[in-house]
Amino acid sequence: MEALDFHCQLILEEYREALPALERMKEQVTATLREALERNGLIVTAVEARVKTEESLIGKLALKGAKYASLSDITDIVGARVVTFYTDDVDRIASMAESLFEIDWQNSVDKRRLHQLDSFGYNSLHYICRLPGYDMRFELQLRTTLQHAWAAINHDTGYKTGVEIPREYMRRMNRLAGLLEMADDEFSRIRLEITDYRRRVQTLVQNGKLDDVMLDGDTFRSYLQIGPLDRLNKRIAAINQAEIQEAPLIRFLRVLKALKCTTLGDVDRLIHRYEEDAYRLARHQLGNTDLDIVSSAIGLQNICIVCILSTGGGKIGLERLFDVLNGRNSQNTALAEMTYQQALNLSFMQNS
After folding, report:
1. CA–CA separation, 255 vs 321, rounded Å?
2. Which range of residues forms the domain containing residue 29?
3. What is the distance between the alpha carbons of residues 323 and 333, in angstroms, rounded to a whole number?
4. What is the DSSP-derived secondary structure letter of residue 70?
5. Does 242 lie in the same domain as 131?
6. Which of 176, 200, 307, 345 has the least CB density, counted as fewest CB within 10 Å?
7. Are 232 and 158 in the same domain?
8. What gap in Å lies between CA 65 and CA 72, rounded to an integer?
9. Which residue, of 138, 163, 188, is where some domain finishes?
10. Same domain? 233 vs 140
11. Which H or E run includes 316?
12. Is 288 helix (H, G, I), strand (E, B) or coil?
């Protein structure tokens, strides 16, 4: 244990007495951050907090204890960290923190702004904060996952070993750090571009320009938001005065692509072309039953069934359909046979 002078011993004793309150403060900081992140819809990699250990504090006091008049002058006794996925989220969470805590701007530092052209250092935003109701300040670090990885690697290979790193190794480390910084920026840029793409898709869908939108998971979800199957599902539910139970339709994406739909326009035409026959098939399926709940997937499933049978897919095509929708199992063969028999006397089968 480091030998401390009398002044530092007093600070250490102050720390020991304050430790229970510091632990409560740590828990409160963590809870406040988590609640605010959830409230603002921000998803992060980690929210961490710690109280500096006695051993760590002794080391700090041994190095520069004279600069502290009391324990309250040490701003990182309690430390919290939020690790984000994207660089632009750091600024969003910083803005959030400014509304949650009293910020000591004089002692806070944005290390992202400190880089020289020939050096990297790890990027991180450090706020010195005060939680309402507490006298002690705490340090809040905000960084991305890649910045966090760099900080850990730099700590492990750098000063933690107590060995000065030769310039050649430092040059290689800085090159890698530069790549991480570029990757961080690129991830954020890609996210922005994807967000812009989704907005463009939504605009095209809302304006009915469906042939301009390629069919994929995102675009299919946007298309479903305008309710293209609502009318058919309501007609089917009315057969038995049934309730419609919502079900995910994204599993139909593979089926629609197998039916040669490449754009949302293709999907829309498929629905309109087979909607009436899909309704007639539902009447055969439900007419002699007392089912009072139907899945919202029934309309699209029947459209796919009618399309497959109308184009000569037969029982094999139906079995493949049910394999995709339900997973491969022995019951799909029987289900395909039953569905085929239900459709056998309908007009679209006579014309196929």
Report:
1. 7
2. 6-163
3. 9
4. S
5. no
6. 345
7. no
8. 12
9. 163
10. no
11. helix 314-326
12. coil
